[in-house]
Design brief:
The structure is a single chain. The protein is 24% helix and 35% strand. With 353 residues, the chain is of the alpha+beta class. The protein has two domains: 4-224, Rossmann fold; 238-351, OB fold (Dihydrolipoamide Acetyltransferase, E2P) (Beta Barrel). The strands form four sheets. It has a six-stranded mixed β-sheet, with helices on both faces. Helix 2 crosses helix 3 (107-120) and helix 2 runs parallel beside helix 4 (136-148). The longest helix is centred in the middle third of the chain and has 17 residues, at 166-182. It binds adenosine-5'-triphosphate (ATP) and magnesium ion. Magnesium ion binds at residues 42-43.
Length: 353
Amino acid sequence: MSAIRIDDLTCAFGDARAVDGLSVTIERGELFTLLGPSGCGKTTLLRSIAGFNDVASGSIWLDDQRIDSLPAHRRNIGMVFQNYAIFPNLNVADNVAYGLRARRVPGEQIAARVEKALQRVRLPGYGSRWPHQMSGGQLQRVAIARALVIEPSVLLFDEPLSNLDAQLRREMRVEIRQIQQSLGLTAVYVTHDQEEALAISDRIAVLRGGRIEQMGTPQEIYRTPRTPFVAGFLGDSNMLSGVAGDFDGAATPVRTCGTTIAVPGKVAESGARVLLSIRPEALRVTEDSRVPSLAARLVLREFLGEIQRLHAVLPDGTPIRVSALGAAAIAVSEGSSFGLSCDPSQIVVFAAP
Ligand SMILES: Nc1ncnc2c1ncn2[C@@H]1O[C@H](COP(=O)(O)OP(=O)(O)OP(=O)(O)O)[C@@H](O)[C@H]1O
Ligand SMILES: [Mg+2]
């Protein structure tokens, strides 16, 4: 395993910069996830690490070796592609052996290494099967075996689970995480799926326009987003506009939607216009008129099994979403009004744009 260091990397297609002066160090043995909207440069970054993309400027290092001008087959990096890229005209063993043959590994070693890689993904003895005889989840594991067989020091995953159904995705992400941890691999993982990113990553980088908008552990990114973009992209977030009052030494009162919420710390200058980011799960349906509460009217209720999602509006028309566990919200009927309290420590305050 190796650490990956990317220094001021730019990748361009014509005039457009798909990756724009990006720097990051990915630690040994870490699973590092790139998350961001379509077109933000995730695949381009991955492909430039693997050696399938030209780099306009900057450098890429594996430990102390500079690799950005090496051909892909000399980088010792495995990549799992979004569509698996399994060859339909080769059986499973030959698919897995592909990278070994490309690296001119002696023929007598190939069978044993292929079988070892298939064992690692829990497909022992499947070498003679044909791709059309395998399920989607099994094919995904063949793709992982093919990346593992070269014993890479780094493994790259480009949306590896996007073709699978929801249940298989949840199972496979755990398998990928276990394989990555048991082999101690350094991995860079691209996904569109926020829950997947939160579930398996050591760290996440949220990309926007070819740059890193924020980087940190899943908890840091989720609980303390630094920009409204990150708050809105990772998880759901209600954005309420408000005006800050005088900091009283402990908290800043923020006037918003007919109530005043004391947000811990000095979050803004007095009189400043702010945006409050409040996660749906930080809100509680309340009967208690002593706690500062937002008056809301229920528009629609979604029953989602373990939680209910309430879609409501505040008196000024601002929509607000609430996640309530099981029975807590059951008494509120559609069209009726109710109070919402929120835990001030879970509010993140941004300067209003
Ligand atoms: N071969 C190419 N030629 C021209 N432009 C390209 C090429 N590949 C990517 N781009 C552009 O570079 C930008 C980044 O693309 P990239 O594929 O890295 O995005 P992405 O974050 O992986 O998106 P998605 O989530 O949709 O897969 C996009 O604007 C895209 O149109
Ligand atoms: Mg992509």
